[in-house]
Design brief:
Elements: H1 3-9, E1 21-26, E2 30-36, H2 56-74, E3 83-95, E4 104-114, E5 118-127, E6 130-143
Antiparallel strand pairs: 1-2, 2-4, 3-6, 4-5, 5-6
């Protein structure tokens, strides 16, 4: 998937769209995507001014966006205006390496299980084969509240 298709599936836009390309997607199983980390991203002006480090919460957000792409592909659906796909839980998070401008984050998610609206994914982010972040994410697809 290239950026045009990613934008069809995710409602996020700059500066919060954190997936640049999907390399592999096996609906019902797993997904591999990339996020190119650029010094021009707005969070680097404050995190940190003299040593730019991508905030861990944004790495988790990038992983959550990848789970959304996998979830919608698994359901063979595109997002609709009346459904909201949200991150609802994060377990076993570990940050192993800093992510800095110039890095290319490899984002991986695997479906562990699914109930009616709750999905559980095992996720990893790495740079050059070195693990940066690992976590279990819980996500839910539910009707939007008015």
């Amino acid at each position: 998937m290239y950026i045009e298709e990613i934008r069809r599936f995710l409602p996020h836009r700059y500066p919060l769209l954190l997936v640049d390309r999907v390399i592999e997607c096996k609906p019902g199983e797993n997904i591999v995507a990339i996020k190119n980390v650029s010094v021009n991203e707005p969070h680097f002006t404050g995190h940190f001014p003299n040593q730019a480090i991508m905030p861990g919460v944004l790495i988790i957000e990038a992983l959550a966006q990848v789970t959304g792409l996998l979830g919608f592909r698994t359901m063979s659906e595109e997002p609709s205006d009346d459904i909201l796909y949200m991150l609802v839980g994060i377990d076993n998070v570990r940050f192993k390496r800093q992510v800095v401008p110039g890095d290319q984050l490899m984002l991986k998610a695997k479906i562990e299980r699914r109930s009616k609206v709750i999905w559980k994914f095992s996720c990893e982010a790495s740079v050059d084969g070195e693990l940066c972040t690992a976590a279990s994410l819980l996500c839910a697809a539910s009707p939007k509240e008015v």
